[in-house]
Amino acid sequence: MPRTSKGAITIEGQTVEVTNPEKPLWPEMGITKLLYLQKLGELAPYLIRYCKGRYLTTIRYPHGVGDKSFYQKNCPQPAPPFVKVAVHAGIRYVELDSLPTLLWLGNLACLEFHASFDRIGEPLRPSEWVLDIDPSREEEPRIMEAAALAGELLDSLGVAAVPKTSGATGMQLVVPLEPELTFDELRGFGRFLAEYLVQRHPRLFTAQRLKKDRGDRIYLDYLQHYPGKTLSAPYTPRARAGATVSTPLTWEEVRGGARIADYHLLSIGARLSQVGDLIANVPPQRLGPIIGFLQRKT
């Protein structure tokens, strides 16, 4: 049997074991496990912000991208003492609240981090609303156009949103919120937006949940924003060719035809040092008056 190599990282007073540091995780990008852990360190202040206090699902690729993978909800065992868990519906979720915990998950080849919309131990009053813009085709040249049109509609309602790449093929619009509304109230808001956009741009958008009914149209998934559901967290890596990262963009970048593939693990550190966290720059929005107005109109 080949001899495995290992080492350890001491960070924030905790020691994280690193096994097989030279294992290729994104071979075509030259990203080994050790380099991945370094990149997670760059992402940590941003990624942890959007995973902390959430129920976390990871996707693990023990032998790197292109090999077998599996979803992990329950905390892997054995876990070091610094890893906290939150029990919900019989599942022991990892609480991603520190850099040591993030690096521990990275060493286990967790290459994607998906966070719940509901928060651990808090009332079901979400602190953001998200519209998932999901193409039906693997290559969709209209995805930035679709995001821009949805953003223009929100802007016309006086709602500030941040576009972010999913890191895969789609886009998501994130609206930071004052935690005053229920998921059901926000679902009604999402339905209004989706139906309006489908009516205005029937060849571009669809609200049909079943893929067989979508054709080549782009799906406006307002149903995903709900308790128990997850979405790729802002700044999560994605286990795809190119080592893409789910990255918030400016509206100028969206209108300029940004490419999802341009935002990846090898470039994200420099970008974050230049622009910071674009989501954190948007103040929490109050959608209550808008939703109340729409309800009175219907």
From TrEMBL:
It is an enzyme of class 6 (ligase). Residues 40-278 form the DNA ligase D polymerase domain. Signal peptide: none annotated. One of its GO terms (molecular function) is DNA ligase (ATP) activity. The keyword RNA-binding does not apply. Its EC number is 6.5.1.1. Keywords: Ligase. Pfam families: LigD_Prim-Pol. PANTHER family: BIFUNCTIONAL NON-HOMOLOGOUS END JOINING PROTEIN LIGD. This is Non-homologous end-joining DNA ligase. It comes from Paenibacillus sabuli.
